[in-house]
Amino acid sequence: MDPASKEDNPISLELICFGEGHFEKHHITDLKQILPFLDQEHKFWLNISTLHNTELLNEIKGIFDIHSMALEDILNTQERPKVEVFDHFILVVVKMLYTRTDIADLETEQISIVFGKNYVISFQENSFDVFDGIRSRLENPFGKIRKHGTDYFAYTLLDSIVNEYYSILEKITNHIEILEEKIIHEDKKIKLGEIYTQRKSIQLLKKVIWPTRELLSTLKKTESFLIKRRTIPFINDIYEQTVQIMDNLEMQRESITTLVEIFMTNISLRQNDVMKTLTIIATIFIPLTFLAGVYGMNFENMPELRWEYGYWFTWSIFLGISILMVIYFKRKRWF
Hints:
Layout: H1 3-8, E1 12-19, E2 22-28, H2 35-38, E3 43-49, H3 54-64, H4 68-75, E4 82-85, E5 90-99, E6 106-115, E7 119-124, H5 132-139, H6 144-147, H7 150-184, H8 192-220, H9 232-295, H10 310-331
Parallel strand pairs: 3-7
Antiparallel strand pairs: 1-2, 1-3, 4-5, 5-6, 6-7
Helix pairs in contact: 7-8, 7-9, 8-9, 9-10
């Protein structure tokens, strides 16, 4: 994302405090408003959008005792997805994919998740995310998400991001199927660029999912008191989802290759049809051109030149030759 566009996005601090039988939601303007929640038995989620305010991030670093190396990873939006385990918190860096309009406008954004004993902090590049489902689940007083710890909540954030991968993959698959139908029916409006747009989306999705799969593999093997044993199966489930997405991406990549081959074959066939039509027309006109050339010679002793019916006789020869050649070509199935 362009740095200038980040500056245009105002910082949003969303605080949700939750637990069994407890739910509070606040849009705060000052980090000092977080302090009363630090010593409570309830858990809280602080969602921060836009990262251009380094002063604010340094303040967060001081409040939660976040290591400077972790803060560097959060600020570096080109960071590769990874997991870093510290003494009292775990940092997860992952890429979020989404599209606001069409699949051709696929966007990527880095999400950094820091979770400790009773808190989860998510850092976003902008205010758009895929966490609305989690916000709704938190409002449900009987939901599982309130009963489990911060490790489970971090899992739900990762799960929402991976589910969006599925959504994008489904859109890509639908576009490929539509393109396949149009190409098979020789829709001349289809351009090669439309196929390569889908290929580019597949490559971007693969580039994001591959390190995410390794991240999840590392996370489920992490030996930290912050990740409970009962959360491991949930993390493993997301890992299996990324494996399935990778397999589907390979299938779609092969489909794209097949579509390009079919597209190029259709172009070649259309060009052959055009060349065949032009060749037939040229072949029909060869004898006519010959006769026209003969009678175009300016010799005085050409008997047909002064014949009363010479003009009409010549036209009958032209038409007769043309009709005979068309019949011959039809019998040979040349068109």
